[in-house]
Amino acid sequence: MSIVPKESIEVIAQSIGINNLSSDAALALAPDVEYRVREIMQEAIKCMRHSKRTTLTTDDVDSALSLRNVEPIYGFASGDPLRFKRAVGRKDLFYIDDKEVDLKDVIEAPLPKAPLDTAVVVHWLAIEGVQPAIPENVAMEAIVAPAENKRLEHRKEDALPVDIKLPVKHVLSRELQLYFDKITELTTNRSDSVLFKEALSSLATDSGLHPLVPYFSYFIAEEVTRNLNDLSLLVALMRVVQSLLRNPHIHIEPYLHQLMPSIITCLVAKRLGHRLADDHWELRDFSATLVASICRRFGHVYHNLQTRVTKTLLNAFLDPTKAMTQHYGAIQGLSALGANVVRLLILPNLEPYLKLLEPEMLLEKQKNEVKRNEAWRVYGALMCAAGNCVYERLKMLPGLLSRPNRQIWRANSGLDLTISNKRKPSNSDLLGHQPPLKKLATAAPAAVSIPTKKDISAAVQAGGAATISGQLPSRREWPTGGDGSRALTVAWKEEVDAGDLLCSLFELFGEGILSFIQPPELSLFL
Amino acid sequence: MDEEEIDKAVMAYLRKKGFKEAERVLQEEQNRVSSVGSRSDPEIAKQILTFAESGDGPLRYHEGYSKLRTWSYSSLDLYKDELLRVLYPVFIHCFMDLVAKGYVQEARRFFNCFRDDHEMMHKRDLQKFEGILTPSHLEEMEFACALRQSKVNIKLCQYSYELLLQYLQKTQSLTMLGIINEHINFKVSPGHPSSISDDADAVSLIGSSQDIAKQVNQKEVHWGLLEDSIEERFEKHGGLLSDSEKVDGENKEADGEDKKRPVEGNKQGASAKKMKKDKVVGAVGKNVRSETTTVSVAPRVKPELKLPVMPPDEEQSILEDLRNRVQISSLALPSVSFYTFINTHNGLNCSAVSHDGALVAGGFSDSSLKVWDMSKIGQQAGSINTQGENEPSLNGHVLGSDERKQPYTLFQGHAGPVYAASFSPRGDYILSSSSDATIRLWSNKLNANLVCYKGHNYPVWDVQFSPVGHYFASSSHDRTARIWSMDRIQPLRIMAGHLSDVDCVQWHPNCNYIATGSSDKTVRLWDVHSGECVRIFIGHRSMVLSLAMSPDGRYMASGDEDGSIMMWDLSTGRCITPLVGHTSCVWSLAFSCEGTLLASGSADCTVKLWDVTASTKISKTEESRSGSGSRLRSLKTLPTKSTPVYNLRFSRRNLLFATGALSKGV
Fold first, then answer.
1. How far is the alpha carbon of A87 from chain B, nearest alpha carbon, in Å?
2. Where is this region: Disordered (chain B) (predicted)?
3. Which domains does chain B have, with CATH numbers?
4. Which residues have C-beta within 8 Å of that of residue B355, sequence separation ≥ 6?
5. Which residue on chain B is closest to A42 by alpha carbon?
6. Inter-chain contact B641–A32, Cβ cutoff 8 Å?
7. pLDDT tens-digit map of B339-360
């Protein structure tokens, strides 16, 4: 009847030295104990309310006990509410994690930092009923449109006069203007300073920046078109874009149309920077990730966004008149969009493209060192894209590896084994810090981007070495068996065998492609 | 019907009931009469038999109640609401009967079986009842005693009443009939059944106080403003003043005071006492000048207390404020300046802001009271006071500029958590109340404790300075509210009557009344002069945490633990309109100076602004309906960043100050 069982009373009695408590007495005591506990809790709740809290603490119980002239319970650290933990394997058993502490440790431990003293800070919660967008206030969920809608609905609802504020001129507060000036100045002149990093983090977190977004997007578009030869500025601008995209308080959607051309420009422009030494590759890689992240985030809102982007990129990729740099950007952009895009758009075109590319890479056919280098870059990017794509496939269908292919591998096994032995360490360097399964789970772009860069440079080095020794990995005749090319052309189909794919890729890229495949899976082939 | 059988049944019944004497007498009687042929009315015999058969067992209650319940639920929709209203008192009394008779186990089973029905409406009561396990608890608990001793009034329409009677007679459920007869007082009204929503009585069950409440609420309440207040004088000739004519204004003020002296001398016998100004009064400068408003139509009343003298410079500053008051309404919302307490480590219990926002006080659970002077800490706060109130550039970044180690004044003296703090109208004194049952008066000028007022026996939950200063009211766990004056260490009045803790207290703008909110879910209005209770407001479903009086003295708002706010008309004692919107405790309420807006601050981390004029206008024009159909509109919800709002206050210039402690856990 009482929620306090008789047994509890007996246990408590024993704990204070009463061993012969009759069960009748326990039975009679139980309901009274429950009543008293409830009484104390009622008072404790009052104390809690008057302390303006909604969580009951031990202090409240102590106050309630002292209200009833009962000795308080000692031994609880005051302040935070107690955290109960669920006992393992029990649904309804909770306990307080109260570890035993060695006194010696406590004494020898360095003094903890004194808690910060209470202080009062003032801010405007509202100015004439409108909440200013400052960090002290809650971020506005919907900046303009939904609020307006609600208002109208509300008005219809009860037909009471509601003031509708007329659209006012967009006025920037002086603080925001100063902020904008400061940021633009930093971006254009001192993008390598520590201060710029601070500015970027501020752009990525500050909640009050929304009024500035149109100005920023205009600024970025302007600067990109005017300063295509200033690489450091372009990098800085792209980082500003990245920060703005990261800021959870900014609704950047309406300004995407202004930003996208600038980013795409930084990805596939013919010439970025004015010196040869400028590492525009990195900028292209970075822009590629930006494009991909935008497509991922806003793809569901603007469903033609990704198609338009891929179309642009594909055009750049397939146009043989375009420069190698543009090809590189297009490939990087496409591969950043994910394995599916690569499978769909790059792989079917891979073979004809490589045919075009081959002469550019060869020392004897392309005398210009720079151009040859560029071609190698493109080759590396292609390999990465294809490799990551095939790796994704393999992860999806590890069990569907086709048997017959093994024989082809066998044929080359002598060579392959040695190579794969060489390659394995580098593999584990790149991926070893992440167990294969975990890698599966992590977001593809993050996982992809890391190996991409390293592999490209590795591929370029390898390629360089190869050219010197006059021994190309792609020396075997390009037009390989009809088998492989067929696999590539139908790569967009879901059911294509990953093994076939890999096989044909191997034929195109040589052993370089193997570095994209995990050792355990690789061993399946060997 | 066999004679023998009946006799046996009667005997068994008497034995069971423990009527030994009666049993003996009956037996004798029987022996004597047995020879004589007897007569028996079959009806009576049947009755007697059913009595005996049903026994006194606890099952009877259970069955009776569950039958009544099924019947009520399956009754006609139109009358269902009314019939269901009967169930709760029956339920409670069944339970108490069972407990009283010692069937504790059965009582508990009965309780758990049917509690869900009433969970929504009477959660708090059920929680209390749940703990009752022995007859002695029943006696100990005042709430239960009050219920046992009194009858509950239930309004029924004629037809529902007949339905109920018919059912009870037809089914012979005597137990239920007994309970209903014993504890329920039906008020049968002709006509259509009423819906539950417009019957406040249906909501709470507070035993005897209901009758008293009816009675009490007959008394007259003079809800008007003080006559000859500064606002009034300001209205009369203040409109002519412009800021350049300050000197002029001063002269006129002086005139006003001269005129006032003889009047007051007659009234109060206190010759040279000047009347002090009511600061919270809601005259709107411009508004009043042009058009009739709520304030200008408010009747004027005489003060019943001797009011303190207001120094001329103080009067000047008030007039200055009135001249510069921003007019706010549903079309022009106020600006809100938020004071956030950071690093409170869950220790902040209460906070208060002085009328000009320059001083902020916090009462802590470590017994300390801390006062921040915002004008010293940063220029920002200072400029709030001295210049216009709507400078958007005054975003607070206060801490940086201060080099001193302690940016606040620490007042130590209490021996328990400080539960309330209140600034005097001029901001020169602070009162604090604590769980050590004392109230302390602190001087801001001397930074010292001046007086310790002892009188309460239990923690003092709330303390409030009167609008004119000098007097203050306190409320305590000892179920009393007390009126004090600063110069006496004993209370002037003790207001007793609440059935549970008095949780909050608020002065009426004319200083003749105080309102108290209590854990017994009622709000009471007390006459300060006589100490009598003049109004009882029934309708809240949980403990009342905050109160606010409209500046014209006609309306009162009260907020409770569940987050609902009620607007009351003081003269009728009726609820005008409930305001629903908050999801957690309403810690604080404040009317704007014109009385056009109500601001509420809650534990759900929002400040809400409500339109008061919408409702009061309707109720004024359609007095007969006493505000039915009118409702307050929620104008705006201002969310804070995980900061429950502890206190709200409108400055005389209509800037809203809000305080709260940043709590990461919320």
1. 23
2. 238-277
3. 54-205 (1.25.40.500), 228-323 (no CATH), 412-640 (2.130.10.10)
4. B279, B423, B425, B426, B427, B649, B651, B652
5. B128
6. no
7. 999 888 888 999 999 998 899 9
